[in-house]
Amino acid sequence: MNSEYFLAMNHIVKDYNGNTVLKDVNFFVKPGEIVALVGENGAGKSTLMNILFGMPAIHNTGGFEGEVLIDGKHVQIMNPLQAMKYGIGMVHQEFMLIDGFNVTENIKLNRENVKKTIASRIFGERANLLDRLAMHSDAQATLDSLKLDINKNTIVGNLSIGYKQFIEISRELDKKNIKLIVLDEPTAVLTETEADRFLDCVRSVAQRGISFIFISHRLDEVKKLAERIVILRDGEKVGDYANDELSVIDISRLMVGREISIKNRDTSHHSDSEQDMCVEVKQLAVDMVGEVTNDISFTVKKGEIFGIGGLAGHGKASIANGILGLYPARGTVKLNGENVNLANTHKTLGMGVAFVSEDRRDVGLALDESIEMNIVLGAMQIKNAFTRKICGITFYDKKTAASHTNHMINSIDIRCTGKDQPVRSLSGGNQQKVCIARALTQEADILFVSEPTRGIDIGAKKMILDTLLQLNKEKFTTIILTSSELAELRSVCDRIAIVTEGRIAGILKPSDEDYKFGLLMSGNSIDTAESERY
């Protein structure tokens, strides 16, 4: 193989129990090249990267056909440690950090600087001491390369999701032998400003000869960053293009085999009555690490889709978490005229409320349980659904639960082997669909949804947003939607509140001019009467 390629994956075929998920895929990366790998959830991106990293999920299921070459030489990568020795690193979509460690300790984990002692001359390397000064120096240099203003002694568990992602990035960049970094949805939790800073960092690192595989559903970022774009669909490579050969629409069409568009919001079924308020929030303050809010007040009409946007770290994510009692909160919240106990999550959910968290792995899902149990458990706990009584004893109604789960799998296209598959083994996008299915199963009057399309491809994104729109129109469900993607909010919401520095800077219509959203998100004010008259 021509050694102009740092990585060459030739004629890759992978089969799971008779289901071929990769079909003769060829994939190449040159030194210092940034290659985007795009496709819908289930297209084969994760499987291809699992092969590259020698993941047990590959070798424990019969391995794969084809070959992997590094610098022109055939290699057999049997585990992630071997991949790291070849200079291959990865920034995962889901965090791989230790919350109890500080920033430096996470960046230097398993690569700690040590210094010899008198004892180590006698007892060997195990008697070495950590060289914390050198560790802090290395960590600070990496943080500075990202222009990230954060104290290297900060405990990672106290950081917001956006900052945690930067620590993930820093850890890979700190590796001295790094030659190729796989970026799995690295900007999914970042604001536009943070994402732009990250893309700049990737470009500068690539100039030093480090290659990148950029996996992202944000096609505008793919166009900004990648030199080449490789597209997978249903396990096959349908294209390998230079950046300037494709538009975003071209990429989306190749990914899904059809043109994707999100229609403008239909609000014809809504009531205009100012008296019909179902959510009233006054002077809400939430103590959520990295997302503190100080004084949040707004109202939402019944049947409205109300959006909450803003930059990461300014407080938008804490609003739903505070109302649901997941973090300490103060203030007054009324749902359908009834006061909410901000310290009692179970009681709040019993008031006809459902919640889809932005943190699907730690809050939203029971990862080791089946798809079925994840979908029906909330309704069982809150409404005693999917149960039946026999002689006064409550039993799990397996038949009804299984039927409902299969219906949800089909209706929102959860790509899986069946209802009994553990949620942990699903792709991130399909895990998110399970979260949505669980919320829909609760048949709530009020639905809080945070980052519903984080890390999800454009086809799945449209399906989830369409599901929310359908739920709102047919069931008249009130939806409070928090998202980092302003375009997403503007496509489905009736009104959008922009949170800046812990307060609502203004509330706008989705049709308002772009500059107004920009002013509010950057901390500048516009005419108060104009922003609040909606």
Describe this structure in words.
By secondary structure, the chain is of the alpha/beta class. Among the domains are: 272-352 and 445-534, Rossmann fold (3-Layer(aba) Sandwich), CATH 3.40.50.300; 367-443, no CATH class. 34% of the residues lie in helices and 25% in strands. The chain is built from 20 helices and 24 strands. A hairpin with a 2-residue loop joins strand 16 and strand 17. Helix 14 (371-383) packs across helix 15 (398-411). The longest helix has 18 residues, at 458-475. The N and C termini lie far apart (63 Å). The model is unreliable at 528-534 (pLDDT under 50).
Features:
single chain, 534 residues, alpha/beta, Rossmann fold, six-stranded mixed beta sheet, 20 helices, globular, disordered C terminus
Helices and strands in order, then pairings?
Elements: E1 7-16, E2 19-29, E3 34-38, H1 45-52, H2 56-59, E4 65-70, E5 73-75, H3 80-85, E6 88-91, H4 103-107, E7 114-115, H5 118-123, E8 129-130, H6 132-145, H7 161-173, E9 180-184, H8 192-206, E10 211-215, H9 219-225, E11 228-233, E12 236-242, H10 248-256, E13 277-286, E14 293-301, E15 305-310, H11 316-323, E16 329-335, E17 338-339, H12 345-349, E18 353-356, H13 360-364, H14 371-383, E19 387-390, E20 393-396, H15 398-411, H16 428-441, E21 446-450, H17 458-475, E22 478-482, H18 486-492, E23 495-500, E24 503-508, H19 514-521, H20 528-532
Parallel strand pairs: 3-10, 3-11, 6-9, 9-10, 15-22, 15-23, 18-21, 21-22
Antiparallel strand pairs: 1-2, 1-4, 4-5, 7-8, 11-12, 13-14, 13-16, 16-17, 19-20, 23-24
Helix pairs in contact: 14-15, 14-16
